[in-house]
Amino acid sequence: MRYLMTPDKTPSAWFNVAPHLPEPLSPPLHPGTGEPVGPDDLAPLFPMALIGQEMSAEPWIDIPGEVLDILRLWRPTPLVRARRLEQALDTPARIYFKDESVSPAGSHKPNTAVAQAYYNKAEGIGRISSETGAGQWGSALSFACQLFGLECFVYMVAASYHQKPYRRVMMETWGGQVVPSPSDLTQAGKAVLARDPDTGGSLGIAISEAVEDAATHPDTHYSLGSVLNHVLLHQTVIGLEAKQQLEQAGEGLPDVVLGSCGGGSNLAGLALPFVPDCGGANNGSGPRLVAVEPSSCPTLTEGRFEYDFGDEAGMTPKILMYTLGHEFIPPPIHAGGLRYHGDAPIICNLVKNGWMEAIAYPQGKVFEAAVQFARAQGPIPAPETAHAIRAAIDEALAAKEAGEERVILFNYSGHGLLDLAAYDAYLHGQLVDV
Ligand SMILES: Cc1ncc(COP(=O)(O)O)c(C=O)c1O
């Protein structure tokens, strides 16, 4: 069962969670001085409009018409009731997912890529540098840059560059340039290669390279696909649509809202519009909000809550978040987009204050859920998305155990049609839990 809306129902403003958070966000600190950073410190990397959104306390921020016109190429995305999965699990729970895989790049990432490209173009920037893990973000940004006539240069985590060659081809098709990271194009990349020439890289290293690239090219800005407040803001169209569609389906609020968590953007996109309903710590009477991460990169479940750099080389401002340490290099699991040592400060704020839960799964159990979902419903999910599916299945089984009619909502953040090597490994007994 699919709940669709016409393009004119796409939200026309983003939802800013800042005024609703349990405590104010702590400011990012300058990597050199340790003082709180101001707009001028960030201006070499980001356009002023995005810096304004990063720090905004306005409850709603209008989406520019030009951005909305592009989002409407695929938005609103469908809300789907996974009836066949419910039947396969024999659960009284009702399972819904928001299908973000229908975007041109196949994931939620274009929701912010388009907005970021727009604001950079409006400020007269000609080139954007960025990093990508599994390639979802790099392909979304290449697509968005192409639409606004910007050059796009992507540092792709080496492990994924080799595991997922077709994502590189997507980026190149949309006019992006891609190199494996660490590369010898930056000081940060060279330093890592000198220490460990065979490294698979990490998102932290690729961010260092992309930031250095932007800092050393005058016409270039840097763009990040997750973690930052403005990125999470742009993703809230997902949850805003989902709320309307759940109403259409005859539901009230869901009992639980789930998303995989790499840097936190798809989870935030779905979950943040539910924060005012969630009833505070330990969920009061509202929906439970749940982050799902890999047990090989357990940032929220095992990390320390402290100020840390966003990148490996220590070039970015320090942000207050759960972190495994900026030098942590996660094992090369197939969910490349979840291999990040930190998490969005907004997500960490919610988890720290008990407004959001976090759980972690090893990749074997994640792929088991992905295959179960594909066999019941049809679509083959991205390995990142499959983390949310694992949790949704476990919630549905817990509802069955308790004899409860739980309403479960999760974010189907992307398809896995370019992740088939990972499925091949799982189906033929070659997937190891790391
Ligand atoms: C399909 C998909 N889901 C989830 C993620 C995790 O990122 P985030 O936590 O920012 O949503 C990624 C990152 O690349 C992704 O490609």
Major sheet: 7 strands, mixed
Associated small molecules: pyridoxal-5'-phosphate
- CATH topology (fold) name of the domain at 66-106 and 230-427: Rossmann fold
Query: How widely separated are the two ends?
Result: 37 Å
Shape: globular
Report the helical percentage.
25-40%
Structural class: alpha/beta
Unreliable stretches, pLDDT < 50, 5 or more residues? none
Oligomer state of the chains in this structure: single chain
Report the portion of residues in β strands. Answer: 15-25%
Q: From the 3D coordinates, which CATH architecture of the domain at 66-106 and 230-427 would you assign?
A: 3-Layer(aba) Sandwich
Side-by-side strand order of the widest sheet: 1-4-5-15-10-11-14
Strand tally: 15
Question: pLDDT average, as an integer?
Answer: 96
Helix count, per DSSP? 18
CATH class of the domain at 66-106 and 230-427: Alpha Beta
The radius of gyration computed from the alpha-carbon positions, rounded to a whole number of angstroms, is: 20 Å
Element layout with pairings:
Elements: E1 2-3, E2 13-15, H1 39-42, H2 48-55, E3 60-62, H3 65-71, E4 79-81, H4 83-89, E5 94-99, H5 110-122, E6 127-132, H6 136-148, E7 151-157, H7 158-163, H8 165-173, E8 177-181, H9 187-195, H10 203-216, E9 220-222, H11 229-235, H12 237-248, E10 256-260, H13 265-271, E11 288-294, H14 299-302, E12 304-309, E13 318-323, H15 345-352, E14 357-361, H16 363-377, H17 383-402, E15 407-412, H18 420-427
Parallel strand pairs: 5-15, 6-7, 6-9, 7-8, 10-11, 10-15, 11-14
Antiparallel strand pairs: 1-4, 2-3, 4-5, 12-13
Residues 107, 133-134, 136-137, 226, 260-267, 337-338, 382, 384-385, 413-414 line the site of pyridoxal-5'-phosphate (PLP).
